[in-house]
Design goal:
Blueprint lengths: L16 H11 L4 E5 L2 E4 H18 L5 E5 L4 H12 L3 E5 L5 H11 L3 E4 L4 H8 L7 E4 L15 E4 L12
Parallel strand pairs: 3-4, 3-5, 5-6, 6-7
Antiparallel strand pairs: 1-2
Helix pairs in contact: 2-3, 4-5
C-alpha cells in the first residue's frame, strides 16, 4: 500500500516497521504523537522532520548502516530515530552522560559513519568527535548553520540549510 508519505523517490519504503510509522502518520496525521520539552508534535510534524532526516541520511550513506543518535529526550532524538529507521538504518543510541571513551568504543564497534546530535548533547559530541580516527557525517537538525565548535574538525556537518526538505509530501 502506498500512502502520500511514501512518494519521495529517495526512500524505498518496504513493509515493516517503517511502513507502520507511515501508516500511523497517515491515519492519525493531526493527533499528538510526541510531547517533549513542553511542546507537542503531531504525527505529521514528526514525520515531516523524520523524512527530511531520512532523505538526508540516504544522500550521505551508500547503503543502510548504523546511525548514532547522540540525543537525549529531545524532539531531535525521536525524529532521528524515525529518520534512521525510515532510511533503512539501524539506530545506535549514544548516551551523552557516558564517559567519552565509552561512547567512542560503542561508535567504533558499530562502525558508525553518521551521527545525529541534539543541542543538549553537543558538548559530549564535541569531545567524542575529536577522538575519532575516521571522518563521519554529523547531522545537526537544531542548527541552521554549522556552529563554531565544528570548524576545526575533519567531519562533515549537515545542518538545517542542508537537510533534505520533506516538502514533497502532501500533508
Amino acid at each position: 500500500m502506498q500512502t502520500k508519505y511514501t512518494e519521495h523517490p529517495l526512500i524505498p519504503f518496504r513493509e515493516g516497521f517503517a511502513q507502520s510509522l507511515l501508516n500511523s502518520t497517515e491515519q492519525f496525521s493531526n493527533n499528538p504523537a510526541l510531547w517533549v520539552d513542553d511542546e507537542t508534535y503531531s504525527y505529521s510534524a514528526l514525520a515531516m522532520r523524520a523524512l527530511g532526516i531520512a532523505a538526508t541520511l540516504q544522500t550521505v550513506i551508500s547503503k543502510p548502516e548504523n546511525c548514532g543518535i547522540f540525543a537525549y529526550r529531545s524532539a531531535t532524538a525521536y525524529q532521528g530515530i524515525w529518520g534512521a529507521l525510515l532510511a533503512g538504518c539501524c539506530y545506535l543510541p549514544l548516551n551523552p552522560g557516558f564517559p567519552t571513551d565509552k561512547n567512542h568504543s560503542i561508535l567504533k564497534a558499530a562502525d558508525c559513519s553518521v551521527m545525529i546530535v541534539d543541542r543538549r548533547s553537543e558538548e559530549a559530541a564535541r569531545k567524542l568527535l575529536v577522538t575519532l580516527d575516521k571522518k563521519i557525517s554529523v547531522v545537526l537538525p537544531e542548527h541552521i548553520r554549522r556552529p563554531s565548535w565544528c570548524w576545526n574538525t575533519p567531519h562533515e556537518y549537515i545542518c538545517q540549510e542542508h537537510i533534505a526538505k520533506a516538502t514533497a509530501w502532501q500533508m
